[in-house]
């Protein structure tokens, strides 16, 4: 797919998003305002906590797991807010429902793509285990097999996952829907739309980082411009500038991979490979065993990190899916509406996992 070559992807300016959400002179009751304030204060706090304390944390699997946890918590918060607003589905504008259903199915597709990539990377661990098993032997034949497996591992991690291509289009579509529908004569609706705006900004931000990391390209790394009337705007802008800046630096350095644990394994493989290729004498034996041990430790850390991140992605998938199912259930009860998009979704997910 041909894509723009611009190094930065600033989100298009859409004016004041709250001119349609909380227009000048609009009234929000004293009961509703604390709900919105609490939601936005919590979001601001979470944006602040997500900012890495050190640049080395950026695109580590442990930090990416925290980012996915953050999304799970934020989407859980919006479900809780909807309950507290006591805004029945029957009062929802059709545009809200259509937007929610479209966005949720897009998020499910993104989760499927991310799960697919994590599964693919995890499969490389088998090749590394085979290498370590063969290196336990002093047989030259086994050493040759180890070299072949290391070559296979590098080819495997450098392959592009076609499932990720769809994420690019989805993220473009999600950014276009940040400009929320106009809300008429509904204070609860205005509060809900403003809160959902924050959730969508957080979701696009995190998903664009994952897409960039997994695809090996910063073309889909987005610089979202949010309105400064949001309580969380400053914390988000600070986080986005720090993380996106470091990611662009990592890509510009020409590294094989920007995922920290994966890079650590590749570095270890790079040190071990020439030792196997050239042979090891008595003098190099200690360094050789140290390199084997180092590869084993880093391979295990990578495998564990991928497994933990995969669980968080699956958790996010389930949160989005259950929220979508709950809305559809309420719609069917209210007006017997069916959802053709939903069918076969669970089947597709099981095929990936």
Automatic annotation (TrEMBL):
This is Protein BPS1, chloroplastic. GO terms for cellular component: membrane. Belongs to the ROH1 family. It holds the Pfam family ROH1-like. It comes from the Eukaryota. Keywords: Membrane, Transmembrane, Transmembrane helix. InterPro entries: ROH1-like (IPR008511). It comes from Nyssa sinensis. Signal peptide: none annotated. The lineage of its organism: Eukaryota, Viridiplantae, Streptophyta, Embryophyta, Tracheophyta. It is a single-pass membrane protein. It is found in: Membrane. The keyword Membrane applies.
């Amino acid at each position: 797919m041909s894509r723009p070559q611009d190094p930065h992807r600033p989100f298009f300016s859409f004016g004041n998003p709250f001119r349609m959400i909380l227009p000048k002179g609009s009234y929000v009751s004293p009961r509703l305002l604390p709900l919105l304030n609490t939601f936005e204060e919590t979001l601001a706090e979470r944006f602040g906590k997500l900012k890495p304390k050190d640049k080395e944390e950026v695109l580590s699997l442990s930090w990416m797991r925290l980012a996915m946890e953050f999304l799970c918590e934020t989407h859980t918060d919006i479900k809780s807010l909807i309950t507290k607003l006591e805004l029945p589905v029957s009062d929802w504008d059709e545009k809200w429902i259509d937007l929610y259903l479209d966005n949720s199915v897009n998020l499910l597709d993104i989760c499927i793509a991310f799960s697919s990539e994590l599964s693919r990377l995890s499969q490389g661990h088998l090749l590394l285990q085979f290498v370590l098993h063969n290196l336990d032997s002093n047989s030259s034949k086994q050493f040759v097999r180890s070299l072949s497996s290391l070559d296979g591992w590098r080819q495997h991690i450098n392959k592009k996952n076609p499932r990720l291509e769809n994420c690019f289009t989805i993220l473009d579509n999600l950014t276009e829907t940040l400009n929320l529908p106009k809300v008429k004569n509904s204070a609860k609706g205005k509060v809900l739309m403003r809160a959902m705006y924050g959730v969508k900004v957080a979701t696009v931000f995190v998903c664009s980082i994952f897409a960039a990391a997994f695809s090996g390209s910063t073309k889909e790394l987005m610089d979202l411009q949010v309105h400064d009337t949001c309580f969380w705007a400053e914390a988000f802008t600070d986080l986005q500038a720090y993380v996106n800046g470091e990611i662009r630096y990592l890509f510009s350095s020409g590294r094989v991979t920007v995922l920290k644990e994966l890079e650590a394994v590749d570095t270890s493989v790079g040190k071990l490979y020439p030792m196997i290729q050239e042979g090891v004498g008595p003098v190099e034996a200690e360094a050789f065993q140290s390199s084997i041990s180092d590869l084993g430790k880093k391979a295990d850390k990578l495998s564990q990190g991928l497994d933990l991140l995969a669980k968080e992605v699956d958790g996010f998938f389930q949160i989005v899916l259950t929220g979508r199912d709950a809305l559809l259930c309420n719609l069917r009860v209210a007006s017997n509406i069916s959802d053709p998009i939903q069918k076969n979704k669970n089947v597709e997910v099981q095929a990936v996992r």
